[in-house]
Amino acid sequence: MRAFEVTGAAVSTLGDVLGSETIDASDAQAARLDEVQFDLGEGPCWDALRHSAPVLEPDLRTRASSSWPAFAAAIGDDRIGALFAFPLQVGPLKIGAVDMYSLIPAVLDPTQSKRASEMADLVARRVLQDALSRSSDEYTDDVGNPYSRRIVHQATGVVLAQLDISADDARLVIQGHAFSNDRSMMDVSRDILDGRIDFSVRQGRIEESE
What is the pLDDT of residues 29-84, one digit of tens each? Predict the structure, then answer.
């Protein structure tokens, strides 16, 4: 909020990886905008996550009804002027969204939008790291097994090459996939090394075969 001229902001998880939940909100209105989108399954946060791209609505009062009719009807009395949503994503893992609202119509220029996207990338890593740290050690460590660590290390290198991301982010992708599928990192790593899981994005989806 200090970086952009907005009234409020919220960070939320969405979808299957971490579930749908408001992690933090600047005020009750920001939290309500999240809750409405959770309940209805539509809105700028869902679109940002679905398309892996920012959603910028500078004049919500005149244009929201065509994009999100149920959401627009639900917040019609809230008098929101503008709403901006940025996806939280680590590699192919779609985690949630950051949304910012203004009580009056407002515009984010390309430089501001780029800066907000960069900030959302940092938030995404923190959100995923925090979620994994609260989960079982099965997903965040390898139970002290040196062989297991070698497998995860090798799989991290494969994912790094597939997605052209850092080693830390590649490991987060493996952790997040294991967590969301209730599997161990070692099992997922074996599937990666055997070619049963391929995080390369082809035609908008991750390849995974049994």
Answer: 999 999 999 988 899 999 999 999 999 999 887 776 678 888 988 888 888 999 99
Query: Which CATH number does the domain 8-133 belong to among 3.30.450.40, 3.40.50.300, 3.90.480.20, 1.20.1530.20?
Result: 3.30.450.40
Cα 163 to Cα 122, 157, 210, distances in angstroms: 17, 10, 21
pTM of the model: 0.72
